[in-house]
Structure formats: structure tokens, C-alpha cells
Amino acid sequence: MSWHFTTDPAAFPDAARDFVAAEPERNTGLLTLLDAPGTTRCWWTAQAEADGAVSGACLLVDGPGTLLLGVMPDAAARALATALPEAGLPRTVREARGEAATVDAFAAPFAAATGRAARTSMRLRLFRLGELTAPRPVPPGAARSAGPGDVPLLLEWMSAYAGDVGEDPGADYSAHAEAMVREGRLRFWETDGRPVAMASFSRPAAGQARVSLVYTPPAHRARGYAGAVTTEAGRAARAAGAAQVLLFTDRANPTSNALYQRLGYRPIADHTRVAFHEETENTD
Q1: Does the reported pTM lie above 0.85?
Q2: How far apart (Å, rounded) are the C-alpha atoms in residues 174 and 171?
């Protein structure tokens, strides 16, 4: 068993891409970022197998140091925990995300190998859209696609959203925002000519897309706007070619979990985010 690492997008082998695409729902995080800039590609091959088939994959997003773990056996996750330090990458990894069992298998040995502590920072649930059920009553207003003139507002809201979900509100989201607008993947819910909520969807890949960036400013919450704009983002994702529409929720937020289920989303898997920090670091 061995891990192979590359920073060259062109070097990510077709076999690894095919492996990731074979289970698009479980590998949704990897599929979303597979060809994104600023991502280190990693894949795992089971050398003991006669055909050397790929048995797992992960991506390291360099900026925030997020390691996305795809489908893999527990043995592969444990092997990755020791392979990363051997490759000189441990300090780059600040957190790991993936299916709960895989993250659990990886986190403890990685923390031990790097002399750091592991702390669960968020427990997530992955949902898949079944029969889309629009909210009733539909709130005042209508959906529209974001345009180039909306980018400043979008950046402001993306920063606020990041703060709400425990990510870096000070990060540069310009490239992401501009790509979503350019590709028509961001919807606003608008009332009286003013956006009051937003939601986006990822580029369809291997038949799946994921709704995200569901955000309503505090002054406009509890009015049904989030449900309305999420519905429109799901419709747009299907219209763009996604056979399966997914989204993540924070398991600690009963309001959003109940909302998405009313819209037709059904839970399919639990995921975990684990942060790594120095033993003496204050994590409060």
C-alpha cells in the first residue's frame, strides 16, 4: 500500500479520476475541487493488488490547509496519516474533512505522527434532493441570477457566510465569486429590487452538483427567503445537467436540517471536520 502525491493537475491519473467519479455522492467534495486552482492532488494505490487499482483519493486545498478525504478503506486513511509527514506535508494540513468513519481513521494517527492534537470542529450531514418541494407559501419576491454588478455584494455576503460556518471571513473569495457569476451558478432572492438571500451550486461533475452558500443576512431571516432561493438553486443545478443535487448541513443546526427536508432533501451520510493544532495552542 502506498500514497503518491503530486502538485501537477495534469499528473492526476485518469484511473484516479475514474475512481472518484464512480461514487460521485461520496466524493462530492473532491469532484467539486478536482480541477480548481490552488489544490494539491493526492491519490492512493493498493500496490498489493494485481492490477494496482486506485483505492482512495484526497485533495489538499493549500490556502486553508484543508485535506478532503474521499472514499477509502480505513487502512488507506491510516497509511495516509503516516505518508503525509514522510512527504513533508504535515504542517500544511490544518484540518481534514470527509465521511465520519474515514476522518476518524485518519485523525488520531495523523495527530500522533505530527505531535499535534485533533479536535472535531463540525459534524455535517450530506443530503440528496429527491422530489423537489417548493416552500408554501412562497415569500414575496423572485429569484434571479447574479450579474457582474453584484460581485461586491456577493463578496460581502460570502465573507459573512464564512464567519457563520467557521471558515475564514478574511479570505479572498474574488476568483470564486467571479466564476460563479460568469457561469450562472449563483441565485439571489430579491424583493423590491433588493437581494435578501442567496444560494449557489457547483459545476456539475459526474452527474452531481452541490448547493452551497445558502445565506440570508440577519435582518431578512425567518421570512422564508432561504427556502425559496435554495429551491431555485436546486432547480438550476438540475437544469445545468446534475442528475443528483446534494448539500451539506451542520448537524447542530436543527432549523436548516428541518428546512432542507421540507424541500425534499434526504440524509445520506454523516461527515466530520477535524482541526489539528499544537498541543499548547489555545483553541477557545
Answers
A1: yes
A2: 9
